[in-house]
Amino acid sequence: MSEGDFALVVIDMQRDFLEPGGFGETLGNDVSLLRRVIAPLRAVLAASRAAGVPVIHTREGHLPDLSDCPPAKLLRGAPSKRIGDPGPMGRILVRGEYGQDIIDELAPTPGELVFDKPGKGAFHATGFGDALAALGVSRLVVTGVTTEVCVHTTVREANDRGYDCLVLEDCTGSYFPEFHRTALRMISAQGGIFGWTAGSAAYLQALA
Ligand code: C5J
């Protein structure tokens, strides 16, 4: 894997999704399923930073007045708390709140780009696409949560925009193990319909 032509994208590794008491848990999910991603992703981040690979983080979240959160999203499901409600880590999925930020273990380093996104995909209503263009990369190594939602949406759209995407299997996760497995298979089916997948060990070996 030649350096200089790809970026590492870390999707939504936020307290609201990964920590007990956050939004993910209020939806009835077992957050430990997502926390499995932390250790391999830490290793991938460290090696990528050491190799000079640009790292871009995203955070799902909304403006404090929720003007960027359509009713269809706000009212969906039956969580005990909704987006914008006060929670133990601040207002749920609201930008600037403690819970909306990235977990300490994977905190961005100074200079790394962080995009807040109101949707599931990283491109919608963000500067993510412009940032990729400015970096001049044509390939993305994609990690984060959840595999079948924000990772998939981002990879599908990146594929449409002409980026080759490699999704690191053990650096993505889902509250639903069967969705995780199937979502990964969907990416690389039919000869790589949206992209490719590999374990982080292969990525680390290629970087070394
Ligand atoms: C979800 C995400 N699942 N980051 N967000 O609502 O995948």
From TrEMBL:
CDD domains: cysteine_hydrolases. It comes from the Bacteria. Residues 7-193 form the Isochorismatase-like domain. The keyword Protein transport does not apply. InterPro entries: Isochorismatase-like_dom (IPR000868), Isochorismatase-like_hydrls (IPR050272), Isochorismatase-like_sf (IPR036380). GO terms for molecular function: hydrolase activity. Pfam families: Isochorismatase (PF00857). Keywords: Hydrolase. PANTHER family: FAMILY HYDROLASE, PUTATIVE (AFU_ORTHOLOGUE AFUA_2G08700)-RELATED (PTHR43540:SF9), PEROXYUREIDOACRYLATE/UREIDOACRYLATE AMIDOHYDROLASE-RELATED (PTHR43540). This is Isochorismatase. The lineage of its organism: Bacteria, Bacillati, Actinomycetota, Actinomycetes, Kitasatosporales.
